Every structure is written in C-alpha cells, then in structure tokens.
Fold:
Amino acid sequence: MSPSFHELQLRPALVKVAGELGYERPTRIQTLAIPPLLAGRDVIGKSKTGSGKTAAFVLPMLQGLDLERRELQALVLCPTRELAAQVRGEVRTLGRGLPGLVTAELVGGQPARGQRESLARGVHVAVGTPGRIMDLLGTGSMEPSTLRILVLDEADRMLDMGFGPDVARVVRSLPADRQTALFSATLPEEIEAISQAYQLDPVRVSAASRDAPGPAIEQWKVFTPPNERFGALAHVLAGTPHASAIVFCNYKASVLEVTQRLQSADVSADRLDGGLDQFHRDQVLSRFRAGSVRILVATDVAGRGIDVEGLDLVVNYELPQQPEVYVHRIGRTGRADASGVAISLAVGPADARVAGVEELTGAPIMEHPMGAPKGPTAGLLRALAGPPPMRSILISGGRKDKVRPGDIVGALTGDAGGLAGGDIGKIEVQDRLSYVAVRHHLASLAADRINAGRIKRKRFRATLVGR
Ligand code: ADP
Ligand code: MG
Structure:
C-alpha cells in the first residue's frame, strides 16, 4: 500500500485539498518524487502521461513558498500554452488553501503587457512557455534573482518542439543555487544531456507502467488499405461506444479532409491543427470539454498537452512514425480511474509502425474483433449523425469584467422562462470572455436571455459557437 499524502510530510492545507479533489492516495510518481523535492533535491522524473506528474511537482513547490514575500519563487516551463494553462490551474487549485498565493500564466499568442503588469505587482509562481519567458527576462520585466525552484514539465515535448535553445537561454539567466525538477514521459539522450547541464546530482525517479496505478487502456488495431481509411474510421466510430473521441492524424491535410467529410455528413466534429489561431484553438477545446462537439480531429502539435476528462476513445487515423508519439496520444484516454479505448488504423499485418509501438510498450496490439467495414460508409455516417448534447455560447465578458460563473448561471436561470440548473453545463470564464455550454436545443433561448439581460448591471454580447 502506498503512503498517504499526509505521510509524505505535506502540510495539512495541501493534504486537505488533495482529499477534496478525490485524490485518495498519491500515485506512484508522486510517492517517489515528492519526498526528494521536499528535501530540496533536484529530481528527474519519468512516468507516462496521465500518471499525476503535475501534482508531483506542484505540491512540494507550494509547500516551499514563502507567501509573505510577494516575489517570484517558482517557475514552470511547459511546451504549449494549453499545458501552461492547465498547470497553472492545478497550482491554483492545489494552492487554494494557501491564503495570498499569486500566480501568473506567461505565454505567447497574447499581448505581453498584462503579463508584465502582473509580474510588476508581484507573483509567487509563474507558469509559461519558453519563448515568452525568454522575452520577459530579456526586457527586464521578469526579475529572476529571487527564484528558487525551476520545473521543466514535459521536457521531451519541449525539445521535440524545438524549444531547446529558448530553454537554455532562460536557464542561463536564473540563479545557480536553485532547485531544478525535470519531468518527462520519455527520457531520450537529449533529456539526459539537459539534466547534466541544468541539474545538480539529481535523484532519478521513474514509475514504470507495470507498477503505475494508472488506468487500463484497451489497445486495438484495424487493418485498412490507405485509400479506404476514411471508411475504416467511420466503421470504428460507429462500432465503438463513445461520448467523446479524438482522432489523431499525422498531417494537417488529413485533419482538414476528415473533419470536412464528417461535418458534411452532419456528424459533430471539429478540427484542431496548427493552422488555427489561438482564439479558435481555445474555443474548440472549450467546446470539446463541454460536450458541444463530439469528435475532435487533431494533429500532434495542436493536440499536445490536451487534458480532457472522460475521453473514452482515441483513434489513430494515421499511426505516427515515432512510437513515443503513439504513447502520448493514447495516454489521453482513460485518465485517473476511468478506462479507455485506443484504436489504430494500420495498413496491414506488416505495418512497421505497429511493430515499433509493440517493441516500445512490450505488448502486442490485437486486431479488433469488429474486423473490416461491411456496409457503405454513408450508412455508417448516418448512424453517427446528429447534434452534440450541448452547445456552447461565447459571452463578451470575463474575469476582468468581474463576470463569475455564478453570474452566468444567474442570468440564465433567473425569473420566469429561464433555464433549469440542469440545462447548464460547463462554464469557463477567461480574462475577457467566457464560454457556457447549455443543452443543445436551448442554446438560442439562452443566448437571447443574455443579450436581453444584464450581468453585474452591464450588457454583454452572447454568440452561439459551433453547430
Ligand atoms: P501527467 O502530467 O503525468 O500526464 P496529470 O498530472 O495531468 O498527469 O494527471 C492526470 C490526471 O490524474 C489529472 O486529471 C489529475 O487531476 C489526476 N490525479 C493526479 N493525482 C492524482 C491522485 N493522487 N489520485 C487521483 N487522481 C489524480
Ligand atoms: Mg503532465
């Protein structure tokens, strides 16, 4: 039996929040990494996606903060903006029992001004992407001298995405007597080199998949000739029960084609690829998390770092060249205690990419019993057609306009003719805008109510997004 969070010597304020979040016990990587991090050691940690690496570094980091001093003490570098947002969210959530904790998200794709202002006011923890942090350090907006803890999260992804030089520049400007933690799902040679360069006598911890308490993922393959791939996808989607699915492609062109074919058959699907601007990427992800789109078709770069709860199916429309990418992709299904299904379309029994994955994971991937598609693709698509359960509404106000989730619920449910609480789904309030999901057939009504009414005595514009 693994120890409890309390037995790992975490402060009661942190143990309490972990309990409230339903974290009954530390995961394996948490059990291994938290004690050396609390002791101030450098740590290099490896475990698969979904095994709880975030809390493994966030909890000891929070314990080490001196909240009385409003100055930068900890910095987390992440490969993508989405991941930075998630990690910062986890810092805030796990730190909600620590009064006065101030955090900042420092990422590209948005003006640096607000980020500079929050740094000037003082933050304890900053989470961001290497490029933007490098800029903020370069312009003197970020004062590194008080920093004591550095975390490189998803270090392998950071290198894959070409952030190596930016990371190096950031690290060079940080105090040398800091603590450095490095987390990664894989430890290729380049990561070892980074560890050598940036860490001092690191403690190595690794939770091998066999003893990780992680979820079970059913893995299958379905054979298809390349020119019948789309039919095979329709067959897989129609034959596998799922509320939400991600379909991974290797190319943006495949993403566009698959999305377009699904949408024109009236299947609830949308795309997530490098061709979308940040606003639309955020919007698609928000809709997907809210149940306003059922199938997300994504490339690896765009899909990296997505944490979607309750994702029950991952399809590899095209298998990646590198087996490590496969492991990342399917790690998104079956998070925490739910189990998930991963199905890969393979060209045939001799597909070298299947062999590569089997070699890496040490387990064979079985052929799915459903076999090859029997009927025409159009028939399969008809079975999948129909609206998603929810529809998202974009509201033109957010946190900075003092809009809170409760205000949105109030505007939708208040007085006669309003929605019932049960008609309202996920609400995401961002800085200057918000998303609320409501039952699909009530979406126009809900948008009308917001457009006609007021929130905090102000008028906001509500727009239906997606379909
Ligand atoms: P990783 O970074 O290893 O991919 P995450 O930190 O994103 O994994 O965690 C995956 C999921 O597991 C998250 O939804 C997180 O809230 C949950 N989780 C983390 N620690 C625990 C725990 N001790 N018990 C249960 N769930 C946990
Ligand atoms: Mg992670």
